[in-house]
Amino acid sequence: MVQQLAGHESEQGAVKDPAPPGLRRWFALGVLILAQLTVWLDNTILNVALNTLASPDEGIGATTNQLQWSISSYTLIFAVMLFTGGALGDRYGHRRLLLTGMVVFAAASLWAGLSTTAPQLITARGAMGIGSALIMPATLSLLAVVFDERERPLAIAIWSGASGLAIAAGPLVGGALLERFWWGSVFLVNLPLVGIALVGALFLLPAARTAHRVKLDPLGVLLSTVGLLAVVYGIIEGGHRSDWTSPVVLGTIIGGLVVLAVFVRVELRVENPSFDVRLFGSSKFAGASVAVMLTFFSLSGSMFYTSFYLQGALSQTPFEAGLNLVPVAVGVLLGAPLSAPLVRKLGVGPVVAAAMFVAAVTFLAYLGLGLHTAMAWFWLLLLVQGLAMGAAVAPTTEAVMSVLPPDRTGAGSAVNNSMRQIGGVLGVAVLGSLLSSTYSADVAPKLSALPAPVAAVAKESAEATRQVAGKVGLPQLVDAADQSFLHAMHVTSVVGAIVGGLGAVVIWFAFRRARS
């Protein structure tokens, strides 16, 4: 497949095709943005479908645990395979990997859209993660080829800000599709987008490749996959069981951490590691990567429970929920380009630290959300959150790329993207599990009048409690579900805010150290 898709790549030499001249390079940027947009769109479009997937009538009756895995299987495989995607791009050519990744992503999207059970969907989502892992490192690496040092910061700002389009388009498109078609349509919509991106990539992107043929690192890929999978599985199971002392939970988490420690040790000894730990010797690279990971931890977790807040507690339709998420997308679109002049004047550290601190405050502001909160307040909260996220991500991405050698842009950008995805995986796993366990503990006393087997089903999630309330004819349980969910969301948002604030501290000290 790789050989067939990219016969134009050179076998030797640093770069076969020069950067596109004139306006063509900006059209090439458009192709890279569309490829990236397809990847991010899949994450955000699923958020509004969670409530539908949980329904046994309209969806597939997925449990909270299965919903977490429908997100985590994608982001987990995406995160760990990014290392391989970056290394393959450095070895075989980034355009070649971009084309291959889009084909894999399209085939897996078709599989997901036609799934009939939760395990099938979870598996298909993992396959989509493989395609995304080939796409994302290639987009950033090709951007570095297409634009020189003078124009690259602006191109990266546009590339980063374009993720706001996915934040807006995902819920809106997903909501519109769910109101007219079945839930599988939210995955099939990827197919025409991939088709357009494929054509654009073939005609507009340079077939660039570094002269050095980077060796692959199968042991590193295996260790990182097993380690992260074990940690995330343990975290999700801990929240699902509401028992963090279970041998299964503790055993998988501790075992995963041990495997990850071995992974780091192995990567330090490998000449061409899939995850180049040595890049973290630069305080700029380390600070930017870790801070972004912590911020995406909070953001991904908040998006997970925001969907249930809007569609569950507030009883909004998927399309209404999508409309109410537009302000965060507007914020990201505006925040990324606005950060550039601030960075030139004040520096990356102060600007990004301030932006991340503001983002943490917005996560904490979820404490003010209730069943009767005015949507105007919610919109303002999301707008500020988006502005902060946009202003943080673009400068940190440029800071990471600025310290990478030309022949390691694929591996370096893969590390940067991996840190985001790992943050997202852990955010959904940790905050999703905290939300689930807190909800179960709070709602359990309110279910005392129900038979034990029925109460056990009802306490799994707010959606399960509402379904049981309808079946047993106890409408007061709906109010109990809403109140317990709000309590769980407030507790979870405090933890998310603390982690986001930690990201601000990390970036501040990292760039202070770099200046000293």
Major pleated sheet: none
Gyration radius over CA: 22 Å
Helix percent reads: over 70%
Distance between the termini: 49 Å
Order of helices and strands: HHHHHHHHHHHHHHHHHHHHH
Number of strands: 0
In words, what does this structure look like?
The chain has 516 residues and is an all-alpha fold. It contains 21 helices and no strands. The termini are far apart. Mean pLDDT is 78; it is low at 1-19.
Fold blueprint:
Elements: H1 2-5, H2 24-47, H3 50-54, H4 64-92, H5 94-113, H6 118-146, H7 152-161, H8 163-180, H9 185-188, H10 190-204, H11 218-241, H12 247-269, H13 283-313, H14 318-324, H15 326-346, H16 348-364, H17 375-402, H18 409-443, H19 452-458, H20 462-472, H21 476-515
Helix pairs in contact: 2-6, 2-8, 2-10, 4-5, 4-6, 4-11, 4-18, 5-6, 5-10, 6-18, 7-15, 7-17, 8-14, 8-15, 11-12, 11-18, 13-16, 13-17, 13-18, 13-21, 15-16, 15-17, 16-17, 16-21, 18-21, 19-20, 20-21
Notable features of this structure?
516 residues; globular; disordered N terminus
Could you give a quick summary of the protein structure above?
The chain is mainly alpha-helical. 78% of the residues lie in helices and 0% in strands.
